[in-house]
Amino acid sequence: MRKPTVQALLAGAALALLTGLAHAEVVIKFSHVVADSTPKGQGALMFKKLAEERLAGKVKVEVYPNSQLFGDGKEMEALLLGDVQLIAPSLSKFDRYTKQIQVFDLPFLFNDIDAVHRFHTSPSGKSILNSLTKKGLTGLAYWDNGMKQLSAKKPLKMPADAKGLKFRIQASDILEAQFKAVGGVPQKLAFAEVYQALETGVVDGAENPWSNAYSQKFFEVQPYFTESNHGYLGYMVVTNAKFWSGLPADVRTELEKILAEVTVEVNKSSTALNEGDRQKIKDSGKTEILPFTAEQRAAWLAAMKPVYDKFTGDIGKDIVEAAKASNKP
Ligand code: LMR
Questions:
Q1: What pLDDT digit, counting tens, does each position of 175-224 carry?
Q2: pLDDT value at residue 19
C-alpha cells in the first residue's frame, strides 16, 4: 500500500476538524407568533444575540417571528417533533398540557404585573414551570407581555355591553367561560387570523395587551378599547426535554444563564413597552381608549365570578389561593 502524502494527511485532518466543528454547532430554531417589537419578540432577539456572542461557533439561533414558521396550534407539535427547539406560547395555550397553568387566565386575579412576578417566583409558580416534564417539555422561564385590554366595535363599559358580541379568544376554556359569563360569544382563533377576523366582522371584539394591539394594527379595526387590565398575558419559554438534556453540559448551563438574564430584561421592560404602544395607539386617533372605573371593574368581576367556581377545582384551590396571595407585597 502506498504511504499517504503529507498534503493528503493535512487535507484529511482539516476535513475532520471542519466536520467536527460543523457537528458541534447546535442550531436552535426559536419560533413565535408575534412581532419583533413586542416583549416576546425582543426577548427572542436578545437571546439570539447573547447566545451567538457567548457561544460563538457552538450555537446558532434562528428566530422566526409572526407565525412565519409555525403558528398557534402547530408550534407545540413542531417542538415535540424536533422541528423547532424553542417556543414561547402564551400561558393560555398550554391548557391541554397542564390544568394548573390555567390559573393565569382567571379574570381579575392579579392586581398588577408586580403581583404576577411574585407568583412566578413562588413555589406554586415554579411547580407549574416544572409540570410539563411528563409531556416531554421543559419549561425554562416566564416572560411577560402585559395586562390585557378589551376592545370592540362598540364601547364596552358595563358587562351588559358585551352581550351578543362575538369575541376572539385564544384556545383556552377559561377565556371561553369568561366571555360567556358576560353574554358574549367567544370564538377560538389563531393569532395570525385575528386582524382579518376583526376587519371582516367574523368577530366583533378581542382582548390583548397594547403591544399586540399596536404591532398587529388591531386598533385600526377596533374603534373602542377599554383600559380594563382584566387579565394577564404572559408566556412560558419552553423546549423539548430530550433536546435540552442532550446538549453538552457547558452549552446548556450557559444558555440557561443567558435565558435568566433575558427574562429579567423582558420582565423589566414589558410595562414601559406596552405603555409606549398605548400612547402610539392613542396618538393615531383611530380608536378611542375608554377608562375603567372602580365601579365598572367591580361589575365585570362580579359577572365573571362563576368562572372561578367552575375552574378552581381543576386548577387546584392551593394554586388559586397562592396566586391571590401574591397581590399582597
Ligand atoms: C394571542 O394569541 O392573542 C397571543 O397569545 C399572542 C401572543 O403570543 O402574544
A1: 999 999 999 999 999 999 999 999 999 999 999 999 999 999 999 999 99
A2: 47
Per-residue confidence at 12, pLDDT binned at 50, 70, 90? low
Q: How remote is the CA of residue 90 from the centroid of ligand 1, in Å?
A: 6
Q: What is the dihedral of CA 257, 232, 174, 313, to 10 degrees?
A: 70
User: What are 97's three cell numbers?
Assistant: 398540557
Q: Where are the domains of the chain?
A: 6-325
Which residue carries 414558521 as its cell? 69
Distance 145 CA to ligand 1 centre (A): 9
Question: In sequence order, what are the beta bridge partners of 233?
Answer: 146
* CA 67 to centroid of ligand 1, rounded, Å: 11
Q: Does ligand 1 have an atom closer than 6 angstroms to the CB of 67?
A: no
Q: Among residues 80, 51, 74, 215, which one has the least CA distance to residue 145?
A: 215
Please compute Rg for the chain using Cα positions: 23
Counting ligand 1 atoms within 8 A of each CB, the residue from 34, 189, 237, 273 with the most, and so the one to mutate, is 34
Q: What is the pTM of this model?
A: 0.92
- What is the pLDDT at residue 206? 98
The CA distances from residue 138 to 130, 238, 245, in Å, are 7, 6, 9
> Atom 1 of ligand 1 has which residue's CA nearest to it?
191
Q: Which residues pair with 31 in a beta bridge?
A: 64, 87
Ligand 1 pocket residue status of 208, Cβ below 6 Å: yes
The answer to whether domain 6-325 has CATH 1.10.10.10 is no
Q: Can you point out the beta strands (E) in the chain?
A: 26-31, 59-64, 86-87, 137-147, 149-152, 166-169, 185-188, 205-208, 224-226, 232-240, 288-290
Tell me the percentage of the chain whose pLDDT exceeds 90.
91
**Whole-angstrom Cα distance, residue 238 to residue 230?**
26
Is the predicted pLDDT of residue 6 greater than 60, yes or no?
A: no
Give 132-162 pLDDT, tens digit per residue: 999 999 999 999 999 999 999 999 999 999 9
- Cβ count near 74 (within 10 Å): 15
